[in-house]
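Example 9 (inverse folding). The structure is encoded as follows.
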């Protein structure tokens, strides 16, 4: 029995869904395998560089274990001083020789590719980023793992879409799915990885909704792949904190303000260092070595500000770190991260952010524990909330960050204070972001140019088209039609505003409205323009948006609309034409598409 049309349609839909499911699972597998390789490289690098060469063995978070046993090398501060410079020299040569766009923190490069490059990432980028980042981070450079692993997943998603000749939109979705998969796996936070990929693209509280489900599928697969090798569970361990006292919200409000100020300092220093190194007139290959040397100098005095720093954040959660050490860690980490990555080194910014935020949170928590111990009973909870609040402030991603920290620390009972702190931090720091390639919203993204005609028109006011408002000839209400015929025969004007004896705008008519009179003999002397005009006026004002204006033109099926003064509807400025609005819109879209 032959299949019906509906059955054929259903079969085709299932086939399409199956194909896309295959793509997203494949992206998840590759991102998960990439996370495994990168994690191994980091483990080996930490063993052979920091441990074997410098005798430096930073603690690890509870969810991570050593790949190789510690060596017996005694701690050597002088080796720790020069090791980041050597790492910067090697990683700088690799990056600037083979893929200059792999410098810095990879997440921002992936955001730029999404908005401005149609999701296109060169196939070599993930490999170069992986090697360069592993060298930078395991020789003492301060950075995170999410940047390189995000580019591994994003790069493969982009490669796969290009290989199958998919559209730009589909390539962008697959690239974003790769970001979610990479970040979700390396930090063991699959839900947050998916939300992060959709939220990190914009500064405003906006989500790339079409990315969430694909990124969710890829992130779950990548997470499972990674955990099959390195074990299940969260990255950090915590004592099971609970929020039970509303009075504790007061100290959390103070924490939000402290985190906001620290995040602004972090962003200012980070991009200040980037600007400083861009001005240096030396080959780019050597800049990461100079940044590494400055990092090493800081690390000489504050060794715990080097590399990842997750171990000391873990200790802070269990209230095992002094206030002075926590503050020194936070400030020092801002500068080591800025010089390690801002000089052209390779690494992510999320990892250092959670350490900085956790340290500041721990310091605030311990201070309040000394001042009001009956209210703030667990300073460690401030570490976890501090992690969330700081990155929310620095990255403009409050929702995914709350989920991130909850998954990473297995502390879901702190969702309420985390929501409060992240929301306040986001509101206070909207002007700043560590991801400079974020755009304000979907409307502002070149990736969506042309998709939001209505939304874009709502952002443009009639006053912005002041130069396109036409000053036209007006006629008096009491003008005889016979006199108007003389005017009409010598003009190409189609719409004629009418003014009364006081000079106020009172009506309008078009050339279509005079058709009946012009072909009727013997009434020309009897008819005046007030008899023809339409007095039920539809007008616009300079403050009205173009979407509303165009809607009025469309509803009445007219080509021009009178523009009157805001506070005086009797004062006519001129006419705005439908064709000019559409022309201006097209030019605006072209400008967005061409803008890099």
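The amino acid assigned to each position is listed next.
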């Amino acid at each position: 029995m032959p299949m019906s049309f509906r059955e054929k349609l259903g079969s085709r839909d299932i086939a399409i869904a199956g194909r896309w499911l295959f793509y997203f699972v494949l992206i998840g597998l590759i991102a998960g395998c990439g996370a495994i390789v990168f994690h191994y490289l980091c483990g080996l690098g930490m063993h052979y560089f920091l441990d074997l060469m410098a005798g430096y063995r930073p603690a690890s978070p509870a969810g991570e274990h050593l790949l190789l046993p510690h060596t017996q090398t005694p701690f050597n501060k002088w080796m720790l001083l020069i090791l980041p410079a050597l790492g910067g020299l090697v990683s700088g040569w690799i990056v600037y020789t083979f893929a200059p766009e792999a410098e810095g923190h990879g997440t921002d490069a992936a955001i730029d590719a999404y908005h401005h490059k149609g999701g296109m990432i060169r196939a070599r980028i993930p490999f170069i980023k992986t090697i360069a980042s592993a060298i930078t981070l395991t020789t003492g450079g301060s950075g995170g793992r999410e940047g390189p692993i995000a580019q591994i997943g994003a790069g493969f998603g982009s490669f796969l879409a290009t290989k199958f000749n998919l559209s730009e939109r589909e390539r962008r979705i697959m690239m974003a799915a790769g970001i979610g998969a990479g970040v979700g796996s390396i930090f063991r936070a699959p839900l947050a990885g998916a939300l992060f990929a959709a939220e990190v693209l914009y500064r405003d509280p906006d989500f790339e909704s079409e990315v969430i489900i694909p990124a969710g599928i890829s992130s779950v697969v990548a997470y499972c792949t990674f955990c099959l090798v390195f074990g299940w569970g969260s990255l950090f361990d915590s004592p099971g904190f609970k929020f039970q006292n509303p009075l504790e919200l007061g100290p959390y409000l103070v924490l939000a303000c402290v985190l906001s100020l620290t995040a602004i300092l972090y962003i200012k220093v980070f991009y200040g260092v980037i600007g400083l190194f861009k001005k240096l007139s030396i080959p780019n290959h050597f800049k990461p070595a100079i940044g590494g040397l400055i990092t090493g100098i800081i690390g000489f005095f504050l060794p715990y500000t080097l590399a990842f720093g997750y171990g000391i954040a873990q200790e802070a959660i269990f209230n095992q770190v002094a206030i002075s050490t926590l503050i020194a860690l936070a400030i020092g980490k801002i500068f080591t991260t800025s010089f390690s990555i801002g000089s052209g080194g390779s690494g992510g910014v999320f990892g250092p952010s959670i350490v900085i935020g956790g340290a500041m949170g721990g310091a605030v928590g311990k201070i309040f524990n000394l001042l009001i111990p009956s209210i703030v009973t667990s300073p460690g909870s401030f570490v976890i909330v501090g992690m969330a609040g700081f990155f929310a402030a620095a990255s403009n991603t409050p929702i995914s960050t709350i989920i991130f920290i909850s998954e990473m620390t297995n502390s879901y009972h702190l969702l309420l204070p985390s929501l409060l702190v992240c929301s306040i931090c986001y509101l206070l720091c909207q002007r700043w972001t560590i991801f400079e390639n974020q755009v304000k919203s979907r409307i502002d993204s070149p990736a969506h140019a042309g998709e939001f005609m209505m939304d874009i028109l709502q952002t443009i006011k009639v006053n912005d088209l002041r130069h396109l408002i036409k000053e036209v000839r007006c006629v008096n209400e009491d003008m005889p039609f016979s006199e108007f015929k003389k005017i009409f025969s010598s003009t190409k004007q189609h719409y004629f505003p009418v003014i009364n004896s006081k000079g106020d705008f009172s009506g309008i008519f078009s050339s279509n409205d005079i058709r009946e009179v012009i072909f009727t003999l013997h009434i020309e002397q009897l008819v005046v323009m007030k008899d023809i005009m339409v007095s039920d006026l539809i007008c616009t004002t300079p403050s009205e948006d173009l979407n509303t204006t165009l809607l009025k033109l469309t509803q009445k099926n007219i080509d021009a609309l009178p523009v009157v003064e805001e506070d005086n509807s009797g004062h006519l400025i001129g006419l705005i034409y439908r064709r000019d609005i559409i022309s201006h819109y097209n030019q605006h879209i072209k400008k967005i598409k061409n803008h890099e």
